[in-house]
């Protein structure tokens, strides 16, 4: 496998550990870090507010070209490497590799309960994780550059090692091998 060495998108359901991993990549590997939520907030890339759920809706039609442009600008430095963190990252273009972090919904539930999320928002996210929504969306858009990692038994350092192995072309985790559908049946 050819090493992948330029731009990595980290996506997945909220709470799976994207920011923890992306911060580690920035700190340990000295990559440029683009945090989608912060990026959208700084540039006011919102199309409105979801009245029912009470959060601002990021305008993907504006966000994605801005992300692509920023990646191109950073890439003018040929040695620069970029990590893009966010559950909307996979809707944008410019990735050499897309990593979807997957987490058993029963573990994810404990993490989301610690956030100030409503019960309906927690359930919505757990169902999305059980169904593998991010992986399916990412694969539809990016094809075989998408890999998914089950992070349930991995420390952040372990996940970073696995990502490094994928980047170096030593390991491959194609979409479709992780199955959390039983969680739906059991709940
Ligand atoms: P996300 O950015 O996907 O929303 P996060 O990085 O903020 O997720 O992590 C959510 C919580 O889970 C946070 O309290 C840190 C914890 N966490 C992240 N990665 C972990 C890991 N590999 N093992 C245990 N806990 C982890």
Please characterize this protein's 3D structure.
With 187 residues, the chain is of the alpha/beta class. The protein has one domain (7-103, 134-177): P-loop containing nucleotide triphosphate hydrolases (Rossmann fold), CATH 3.40.50.300. 45% of the residues lie in helices and 17% in strands. The protein has helices at 18-29, 36-43, 60-74, 105-113, 119-131, 133-142, 156-167, 182-186; strands spanning 7-11, 32-35, 46-49, 56-58, 82-85, 97-102, 146-150. Strands 2-5-1-6-7 form a 5-stranded parallel beta sheet, sandwiched between helices. A two-stranded antiparallel ribbon has the order 3-4. Helix 4 (105-113) packs antiparallel against helix 5. The structure holds 2'-deoxyadenosine-5'-diphosphate (DAT).
């Amino acid at each position: 496998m050819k090493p992948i060495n330029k731009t990595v998108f980290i996506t997945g359901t909220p709470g799976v550990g994207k920011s923890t991993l992306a911060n580690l990549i920035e700190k340990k590997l000295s990559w440029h870090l683009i945090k989608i939520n912060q990026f959208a907030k700084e540039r006011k890339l919102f199309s409105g507010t979801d009245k029912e759920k009470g959060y601002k809706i990021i305008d993907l039609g504006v966000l994605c070209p801005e992300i692509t442009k920023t990646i191109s600008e950073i890439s003018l430095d040929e040695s620069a490497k970029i990590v893009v963190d966010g559950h909307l990252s996979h809707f944008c273009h410019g990735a050499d590799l897309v990593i979807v972090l997957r987490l058993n919904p029963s573990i994810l539930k404990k993490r989301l309960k610690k956030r100030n999320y409503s019960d309906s928002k927690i359930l919505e996210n757990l169902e999305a994780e059980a169904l593998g929504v991010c992986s399916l969306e990412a694969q539809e858009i990016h094809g075989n550059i998408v890999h998914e990692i089950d992070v349930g038994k991995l420390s952040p350092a372990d996940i970073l090692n696995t990502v490094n192995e994928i980047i170096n072309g030593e390991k491959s985790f194609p979409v479709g091998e992780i199955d959390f559908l039983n969680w739906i049946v059991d709940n």
